[in-house]
Amino acid sequence: MKKKYCMVIDSSVCIDCKACMVSCKVQHNVPRGRWRNWIKHTEPDFSMGKHTFVHFQPGGCMQCDEPSCVYACPSGATFKDEETGIVHVNEDLCIGCGNCITACPYGARYRHPVKRVPDKCDFCSDRLSRGLLPACVDTCPTKARTFGDMNDPDSDVSRLLRDRETVRVVSKPVDTKPNMFYLAETMPADWPGSVEYPAAHQAMTGFVNPLVKIAVGISGLGVAAMFLKQLFTGDETSGNDKEEV
Amino acid sequence: MKPPGMTRRRFNMSDKMIHRHDKGSIFIHWFNAFCWIFLTLTGLGLISNERINPVGGWWPNLMRTIFGSGETLLTFHIYVGLTWAAVILIYILVRFRDSLGFLKEVFTLSPARDTVWMIKRNVQLTLGNKALKKMGMTTDIPPQGFYNAGQKVFAQLTVFAGLILVVTGIIMYLSTIILNNPTPAAWSRTIHYLMAGIGFAGMLVHIYMAAISRDERPAFKSMFSGMVPEDYAKHHHELWYKEVKDKS
User: Fold this and answer.
1) CB contact (8 A) between residue B128 and residue A240
2) In chain B, which residues have pLDDT < 50?
């Protein structure tokens, strides 16, 4: 059966220790200043005195069901694996155009400064294949992150999704259908950007594609007309008339 | 194969033949043709996003099946493209004067004559002489030089599109190797696709004319033999024919 990996996060137990970020960085050799995952936080309101609080929210690539990064990639280098639901980057197919980085409303991708291709969370696919949990999940001291297969009814994530109420942090106005669920509620929720496709991509889909179709259509029609005319009007070709020139 | 009524207008085999293309031009034509077709087919296969590919997902899937994987497909596309550009460049350098002559020939349009030719010939070939008369035009077609106006426009398109395809292709090739800014690669792909698409639209007409059109059959044959019948030259490229006659 096809798997659909997801993450269910209890952000209320996150203590902002950033161990998930560090273990990810180590696991994937993420370059300086770049991160595959994150912990967001609310701004404390100190006017609340002793009730002042900060809420932490661990996150990463949401492996969306409507992945705007995949839609933004013409070459198919960024793709959603049908067998696992994980969004991957095929670095050998990628020409480094940066469309997917702009298109992701969560900022879950960065351009690798040396490889010059996008890099992102892939739920530690290499660890999964060895039967290990993703590094961030494995390392979390408060077990805020739960990882598993949604399609397996006995998995921890399925149980949590079934028994507990969950919310998702969604982008507006386009909901990319993220597969990262937060138990009960989470904050902050207003940080995702909008789904934006770069100008070059908009030009390709909105202008170049119709133009090419029209050009090829007209030329194809012309060829078809010439061919039919040649088939059915054998005698009346230009040859005779040209002799009048 | 040909209906009996046709023989009357067939070019007689005993016609005197005139030299039109030398071996170098014939080679570069077929090399160029092979590369354009190969690169168009593989290039269309590289747009594997079925939301963007104008024919959908089946074509990229077919190409990946033929080549084994997307990576192999891309590698072939890149290296055939680079080889094509390199061979054309070498050809231009080795035959510099001939190449300049070609460019001069195809970029010299005579607005009055060529506009009339373009309009009339297009109507004549698609709708016929009756339509031409209905539109209030006579059926005589302005005489043409070594290339007719349609061939010139197509040649201009291939030169222009070819140059841009090479430049944008190299930008995409180098993007992940040396470019720190992704924007040139993104625009290069859009422009590369535009040029290849327009080139393909022109190629359809060119291939029809060469391989299927009855009128231009001698031109097709001349791309192998280098020779055209005198009669054909006189009727299809009158100005060039006169030039050749004046010289001899």
Assistant:
1) no
2) 1-9
